[in-house]
Amino acid sequence: MHRRLAFLCLRSGPNPQPDPNSNPEPQLPRKPPSPSPSRPKPSPARSAKKPPPDSPNPNTLLSDPSLDNPDLGPFLLKLARDTIASGEGPVKALDYAIRASNSFERVAIEKSEEPSLDLVMSLHVLGAIYCSLGRFEEAVPVLERAINVPDVSKGMDHALAGFSGYMQLGDTYSMLGQVDKSIECYEKGLQIQIESLGEIDPRVGETCRYLAEAHVQAMNFDKAEELCKKTLEIHKAHSEPASIEEAADRRLMAIICEAKGDYESALEHLVLASMAMIANGQDNEVAAIDVSIGNIYMSLCRFDEAVFSYQKALTVFKSSKGDHHPSVASVFVRLADLYHRTGKLRESKSYCENALRIYAKPVPGTTAEEIAGGLTEISAIFESVDEPEEALKLLQKAMKLLEDKPGQQSTIAGIEARMGVMLYIVGRYEEARNSFESAVTKLRSSGERKSAFFGVVLNQMGLACVQLFKIDEACELFEEARRILEKECGPCHQDTIGVYSNLAATYDAMGRVEDAIEILEHVLKLREEKLGIANPDFEDEKSRLAELLKEAGRARNKKAKSLENLIDPNSRRTKKEPTKKWGFRI
C-alpha cells in the first residue's frame, strides 16, 4: 500500500506583529509565518516571470552633487513615505528611497561621521518597497546593510533600529523560502529585544510567539513549544485572565501538541482558548477553534463529537459569512474526510462536491491560498478512494493558483511531492520522477533538506528512478534518505526501515551483495531486538537474506541480478532458478 505524503495541517489564531516600541518607519505589513498546511515561501524562479519595473541607477545617483545637501535626505525620505501612504505607486517611492539612502551615505562620508539612524530608516523603507514589488533578492543586501549600522550599546533608538532590521530581514528570507536564515534573523532580533526590554516585557512575548510560529512551520516542534510556553507565561503576567492574547498562545500550543501526537493536551489548550474567545465575544474565532477541536476528536476516533464540533462551526460561519464563504467550504472538507474515514462514502462525496462548488466560484476576498489548501485536502480524499486521476487534476489546479504567489515555495514543493505519488500510482514514472525532482530542489533551497518529510520525498523519487531503471540515481537518493531519516526519525521508524529495504534491493541489483547483506542483517537485528518478529515483513526479509547469503557463496560466478526481476511481478524466471522477488517499499 502506498504511503501517502501528507501535509501537516496547522491552524492558529491572530498573530500580532512584534513591536518593541512604536516603529517610526513605514513598513509594509509583515506576512506572519502562517501555520497553514505547509510553510509558505515563494519560488524565485516563478516570481521572475514578470520583469520588474525599472529603478533608478544607483551609480548615476551617487554622482549627483545635490545629494551632498544634508537637508535632502530627510526630505526625500518623507517623500518616499508620503508616496507609499498616498498609494501613488511603489516605483516613484523607490526612486525617492534610493536617493534618500544615498544622500544619507554621502553626508556621513563628507562629515567623516558614522552613518545615522536616518540611513537605517531609509534602508528599511527601501527594503519594504523592493518586497512590495516582489523583488525580494534585491531587498536582502539593502536590509543586511541596515542591520550593520545600529550599535545597540548606544541606547534604545539603536536597539529598536537593530530589532526592526533583523525582523524585516527575517521576513524577507522567509518570503524567499530560506527558512534557516529567516529563523536566525528572528532569533537575533529577539535577543536584542530581551537585552533592551527584559525577558518578561509583553512585546518580548509577541516576538517569542512570532518565532515559535516560524519554528512550527520549520517543524522544529520542541523549540516551538519552548518559545510558546514562554509566551504564555509572559501574557499571563501582563494580561487579564482569559485574554485574547492567551487564547492565541493556546491555539498555537495546541498546534504544537497535535503535531507531536499529544492530542489530549492539544484538546485542553483548545477548550481553554475557546472559553477565552467566548468571554471576549469573538464568535467567528470560537467557530474556528471548534473546527480545530473537531480535528483533534477525529484524530482520537471520537467521531460523533467531531461531527458536533464541525456542525457548530458550520452554523456560525454560514450565519456570519454566508453559505459560499471559503470558511464554509473548509468545514465541508473536514466533514468529507470524517465520513470517508467512517466508511460513509456517499456523504463524503457529497461534502466534497459542495466544497468544490464554493471553490469554483469564490466570493470576493477569497485568497488563492485558501482555495489551493482546500483543493489539496480534497485531493487526498480522492486519492484514498482510488481516484488518482481526479486527485491529480485538483493538485494541478492548486499548483496553478500558487505558482506566481510570493511565499509559497514549500507549499508548491509539497503539492509536487503529492503529484509525484499520484503519477507513480498510475504508472507515469517519468512524470513522477520529474515532479519529485522539482519538489526536492525547492525543499533543498528552502532549508528543509534535513527534515523527515524531505527524506520521505527522496525515497519516493528513488522508487520512481527504480521503475525507470536509473539504478545509480536511485541508490544515491536512497542513501541520502537513509542518512536523513536515521537522524530525524531513528533507525527503528517504519520510514527508515522502508528505506533500508529499498537500499538493500538496490545494492543487490547493482551486484553489491555484501552491502545488501549488511543492511538486511541490520534490519533483522532491529526487528529481533527492538521491534519484534510479528511483523509480516520479517519472514520476507529473512528469506531475502538467506537467498543473498547463498548467492554470496558462489559470487565469483554469479552476475548481478537483473533489476527487472527485482521489481517486475511478471518477469520471467527459469525453472532452474526459483528465486523470490524482492519488493521495493513505498
TrEMBL record:
SUPFAM superfamilies: TPR-like. Residues 15-43 have a biased composition (Pro residues). SMART domains: TPR. Residues 1-67, 560-586 are annotated as: Disordered. Keywords: TPR repeat. TPR repeats lie at residues 120-153, 163-196, 287-320, 497-530. It comes from the Eukaryota. This is MalT-like TPR region domain-containing protein.
